[in-house]
Amino acid sequence: MPIPRLPRPRGLVAVLAAAAIALPLGAAPAAADDPPFRDPGLPLNERIDDLLGRLTTDEKVSLLHQYQPAIPRLGMDPFRTGTEALHGVAWLGEATVFPQAVGLGATWDTGLVERVGDVTGTEMRGFNAQDPAAHGLNVWAPVVDPLRDPRWGRNEEGYSEEPLLVGDMATAYTGGLRGDDDFYLKTAPSLKHFAGYNIEEKRDQLSVTVPPRALNEYVYPSFRPAIEAGNATGVMASYNLINGRPAHLTPLLNDVRSWSDADLMVVSDAFAPGNVVETQGYYDDHAESHAAMLKAGIDSYTDQGEDSSVTVGRFQDALDQGLIGEEDLDRSVRHILSVRFRLGEFDPPDRVPYSDITPDVIDSPEHRELAREAATSQMTLLRNDGALPLDAGADTDVAVVGPLADTLYEDWYSGTMPYRSTPADGIAERLGEGGSVGVSEGADRIALKADGGYVTASGDEEGGVLRVGDGEGDARSLTVFDWGEGVVTLRTDANGKVVGLGEGNRLYNDQDQPNGWFVQQLFRFEEVDGGVALKYAGYDEWNRKYIAVDGEGRLSVSADSVEDAAVFEREVLSSGAEEAVEAASDADAAVVVLGNMPFINGRETDDREEIELPPAQQELLEAVTEANPNTVLVVESSYPMAVPWAEENVPAVLWTSHAGQETGNALASVLYGDEEPQGHLPQTWYRSTGDLPDMGDYDVQHSGHTYRHYEGEALYPFGHGLSYTSFEYGEPEIDRRKVGADGTVTVKVPVTNTGDRDGEEVVQLYSRQLDSRTEQPLKQLRDFARVSVPAGGTVTAELTVDARDLGFWDVTRGEWAVEKAKHELMVGASADDIRHSVKIKVKGEKIPARDVTAQTRAADFDRYSGIALADETKVEGDTVAAKAGDWIAFDGTDLSPEPSMFTARAAAVSGGAAVEVRVGAPDGEKIGEAAIGATGGVYDYEEFTGDLGKAPGGKKNDVYLVFTGEVRLSSFSLE
Fold first, then answer.
1. What residues contact residue 73 under an 8 Å CB cut-off, 6+ apart?
2. What radius of gyration do the chain's Cα atoms show?
3. Which range marks the domain in which residue 734 is found?
């Protein structure tokens, strides 16, 4: 039967609508000598008012920092905002580790994701019981930035490229995190990162252009549902600038607060408050910048680690200078206190439904079982030419090869896995004593010879400094792993540890895996005369230096150029590809496990340059496939990878995210058919890096990003996921062919399992608007339903779409509009596998011709080329920042009044530019212009006018404003 797509919104918003409703009848009254804020029988607002009135100004300021101190005179304990809980509790020790968020997105199962959130919240309460001051209950999760580009370094942290799926997953996960009580919170989730964040390169200096349609149709639908449902208790501001203004100062935070009647707590990202002055240069001093952030809506400041004195000092300076007042402090502290009250901090434990959770819940058997279920559910079968499921008969020989065959990796926001089931482990356990599993990493083992001997590693468990000496055997053996873009890691066979930069800038073999904020275990080989040089490629200030050998033979990162580097002769001790081929040649099947290491080439602070498999991994795949035609490729990765060769040549391809402690068991259960592959891609998989547009263009409609706008042929489309059975879709039935703007259309689709196995299918409903005043997506997901269908049976999937959701942001009037139009509703198994379609008519409005006789905001264009959106003032407003040759277009403009004057409100540092008015095309008929003189600065606007010649009549003219130089245009009119 169908599994519901959306968890029902909770009652919290209604409960707190007036913030005047008390806790349930029967709540224990406060003791007679307790202040009113301790009385759970009083309305929340009264309790906050009472506590707020008791706080001194200095105490209020102290609560603005991430580490809020105790206030003993009021009995207030320390409180810390911000614990990481992206796919399980992170950074606090061993905890249940679930699949990466992108893997959870691949489940398309909100019920499952809510249960994962519930377990994560429960374990968070368990950690909080251990150390309440250090393990805070405000969790910074989930990440709801839509995954518009697979090269984004933090792709693993998000759910999908489609906002509807993002919103559903976020609503489900935060629903589990916050718990099922109408008032009390299990944890207080904060959504990351608001807004327009999707690039790591200079992320604290980059301004992204997000036009009104992109904001309202792509960004807001990702963030809004979880807040509107009452599940998320706030957002985290992002590092970037949005439309020229730091996200920590954006007035868009006011929109976020309007989505909920409850108080929301807005937190800064780590060290971001200082960036407003130091890297963004937006204000000259920190007192001014912090005052502006407080007024914009930032409540909690994450800066300088546990040292709150810097933040406190900046706010004290702002108070002393009169930049903020008590009312500004009260507004933010109220938001903070609201969350603390709802976490139950000030109430008797017997009133708080989560206060009895103890640390023994962490990594419980039930949680391990859910981790396995989640890992299994996200396994996504991309291709299958009959190779899967594998035969698990007696005396079965399987080769499991590749750099990820017998290991599991954690990512930056992962918890510590309490145990690890690797792919090889899972397959061996599944086969039992009757089968045989051969394992090969498929990586070359090399030795590096230099003057004086070989690079030699310590055999001690704790490792030591690498030296050039007379080492033999494993002491001089290095295993090389290729992670793409020329980056490799080196593991010493002497002790199995990875080589990295250590004390004294020397190389040590002392790490289990690449790790840390500054990943220091990365290298590149460069060909030089006489051999190779080794370049350090870690993510820190040393990453342009080379390896040299000092007078004592120690390897160090100390050469400034390749000319000064040590030259090594690279000797191949054993070929990884040959070893893997030997393991695979006589096996009944070969499972090749390739992909990424989450700390390398695609993580926070580092975007990918390429989406293809690393060269050595591609060569390994080709060699094994040639040796054994019964080869299965398992791509274990944090993001989509381009594997067109595999699609053409490998019998079966399956994708999994880094799925946590149960990865191997889950993988084996799918490979051997004990479980159906259930995952469906939450992102488009492209054929090559060359298929991707400019990563810096955030506006997906403009750039052609995502399935909504991509006109090429995807390698694997959004929503794709195969099964071991087959499904036939019957003709859809709709309850109406015409629908009003406030109506709903229900689509019922019979789904028949035509195979001989029970299976699950994700039925997807897309729409396409057939006629419109403006450009529309090629298609857009509107609903989905996961249905379980027995072999030979039929189940009816029911999908709905609200006519309002078929609307779009009307830039002519700055509002959401449902247009009178025909729409095609399409039912299918993916964005490119549409089985049936029906047409409906939406009885919306006819959007009038654009009227530009009054002042028109320049940022409300329909189309554009070259321009950026910038800040009109430091506080509010967007303006068009243009250079010579850029243009903006206003479609469907009414020129019937025969305007004779063009007025432009513009700013320019220097004069000499003009804004031309053209009709029909950027190089179409020029009917006038306004010369723009120097105004003194980018925030200094003046009105400039110019005469218009005879303009074409009619109400459907495309008017272009073309710029001949650097201008900021705020608004204009044709009068």
1. none
2. 30
3. 725-843
CA 166 to chain centre: 9
Q: Band the pLDDT of 1: cuts 50, 70, 90.
A: very low
Q: Mapping DSSP to helix (H, G, I), strand (E, B) and coil, where does residue 436 land?
A: strand
* Percent of the chain surpassing pLDDT 90: 94
Contact 786, 2 (CB under 8 A): yes
803 and 912 both lie in a single domain: no
Judge whether 914 and 965 are in contact, CB under 8 Å: yes
Last residue in a domain, options 574, 600, 631: 574
Q: What is the pLDDT of residues 21-42, one digit of tens each?
A: 344 333 445 555 789 999 999 9
Residue 6 pLDDT class (50, 70, 90 cuts)? very low
* Residue that finishes a domain, picked among 546, 574, 602: 574
- On whether both 409 and 489 belong to a single domain, the answer is no
In whole angstroms, give the CA distance from residue 530 to residue 533.
10
Evaluate whether 783 touches 765 at the Cβ level (below 8 Å).
yes
The DSSP symbol for 473 reads G
How high is the pLDDT of residue 29? 52
- Neighbour count for residue 506 (Cβ, 10 Å): 18
CB-side neighbour CA atoms (13 Å) of 720 = 20
Rounded Cα gap, residues 700 and 880, in angstroms: 19
């252009």: which residue's tokens? 209
- CATH value at residue 839: 2.60.40.10
Q: How many CB atoms lie within 10 A of CB 623?
A: 20
Burial of 77 (0-12, 13-18, 19+ CB in 10 A): middle
Say if CB 836 and CB 732 are below 8 A apart: yes
Contact status, residue 353 vs residue 124, Cβ threshold 8 Å: no
Q: 145 CB contacts (<8 Å, ≥6 apart)?
A: 154, 157, 158, 192, 193, 197, 198, 222, 238
326-342 and 286-296 helices cross at what angle (nearest 10)? 60
**Nearest-10 crossing angle of helices 326-342, 44-54:** 130
In a domain, 701, yes or no: no
Q: Report residue 471's pLDDT band, with 50, 70 and 90 as the boundaries.
A: confident
| Domains held by the chain: number | 5
Average pLDDT of the residues in 262-283: 98
In a shared domain, residues 462 and 411:
no
SS3 933: coil
Q: Is the peptide bond prior to 195 cis by the omega test (within 30 degrees of 0)? A: yes
Quick one: DSSP state of residue 413?
T
H helices of 229-325, where?
253-258, 272-278, 286-296, 309-320
Q: How far is CA 430 from CA 376, 391, 651, 673, 925, in A?
A: 14, 11, 22, 11, 73
693-711 per-residue burial string, b: 16 or more CB within 10 A, e: under 16: eebebbbbbbbbbbbbbbe
β-bridge partners, 568: 532
The tokens 């403006």 sit on which residue? Answer: 774
| 594 and 561 share one domain | no
The pairing of beta strand 815-817 with beta strand 507-511? unpaired
> DSSP string of 125-166?
HHHHHH-TTTS-SEEEEEE------TT-TTGGGS--SSHHHH
Q: Which residues of 543-581 are buried (b: 16+ CB within 10 A; e: fewer)?
A: bebbbbbeeebbbbbbbeeeeebbbbebeeeeebbebbb
Residue 787 bridge partners (DSSP): 2, 761
Q: How far apart are CA 381 and CA 619, in angstroms?
A: 22
Are 128 and 220 members of one domain? yes
What is the CATH number for 655? 3.40.50.1700
Q: Does 831 lie in the same domain as 879?
A: no
Residue 439 Cα distances to 442, 593, 654, angstroms? 9, 11, 19
CB-count exposure of residue 713 (10 Å: 0-12, 13-18, 19+)? exposed
